[in-house]
Amino acid sequence: MRAVVVGGGIGGLASAVALTRNGWQVEVLERARAFGEVGAGLAVLPNALRALDALGLGEAIRERASSEMPAGIRAVSGRWLSRADHGELRRRYGQWAMVHRADLLEILRAAVPADALRPGVEVREVRRDGTVLHSGGTSTGDLVVGADGIRSVTRRSVWGEEPAPRYAGYSTWRAIAANVPVRESVETWGRGERFGYSPLPDGRTYFYAVVNAPEGDEGGADELRRRFAHWHDPIPALVNAVAGTALLRHDIYELPNLGSYVAGKVALVGDAAHAMTPNLGQGACQALEDAVVLAAADGLAEYDRLRRPRTQMVVRRSRRLGVIAHWTAPALVGARNTVMRMLPRSGFSRSMAPLLDWAP
């Protein structure tokens, strides 16, 4: 059996690994000239670690990751709004891992046969019968995996009538700071603004900032510093440590629900199927789950039945959390913060069950 995978990111490479382990001959078409990713930190949550274990790659990730669990949420002043119970989280769900995104890509790529990887190939059209037209000619497969992201050519080709991605209303900066070590993973909520940071295993710190902004806003390092220089430590040091060239900024989009993730011989995975806001840290995690289920499913109809309800639930939960986190009205923000301080630590652990209880 032959599979053509469109896209060489996390979902595409994980799908290639899973299918190869199940005896498929795989061809991975990637538009970029080299397999890799410009990015920053990535939280691999327990459900995703179980998916990586199913691919035989869990230990390789653990060896290159810090096992940092979320410490909780703070206010701009530094006051804790919510604290996580690490013992309860680990007992119920298992290990967390924080890695550089490029390290995860490297581990996945190394697990795919070298002759299956075709960088520098731009896909132009995908057909339901398993035909893929691209800059290098034509490929055909018994299965085509559309893993080509939120602006998926695969989805536009086969699901042309489906709605386009929609802007979530906020934009994010991401960066890695070399000389500002932190000891725990924290997210801080303000009014229409958030800031998060986590330690990486090499001593550097990954951070992100999320702000309400018009679509297409291009504010850079100066705006980042203006917004966050007065927040609690170590946030001022983090924003001052990063040069503009090391700072990534992207608008956040999500994909409206698709009626199906499969059509003919084509299946969508990852952002091509269910792009979501990053508020739950589940985008890459769900792509890894997709890959494992796709390779193990008894046909594409079963893959759709197993994956679509779950991933669309995660999209909804992530959207709702983003709405609450980005409130701007003082009364709403004050009420939100008060309620968060009153909730028991066990509430956070229980709330994560629908996300983290998944197993292959």
TrEMBL record:
Gene3D superfamilies per record: FAD/NAD(P)-binding domain
Lineage: Bacteria, Bacillati, Actinomycetota, Actinomycetes, Pseudonocardiales
Domain of life: Bacteria
Protein name as annotated: 2-polyprenyl-6-methoxyphenol hydroxylase
GO molecular function annotations of the record: FAD binding; monooxygenase activity
Domain FAD-binding, residue spans: 3-296
Keywords: Monooxygenase, Oxidoreductase
InterPro entries: FAD-bd, FAD-dep_Monooxygenase_BioMet, FAD/NAD-bd_sf
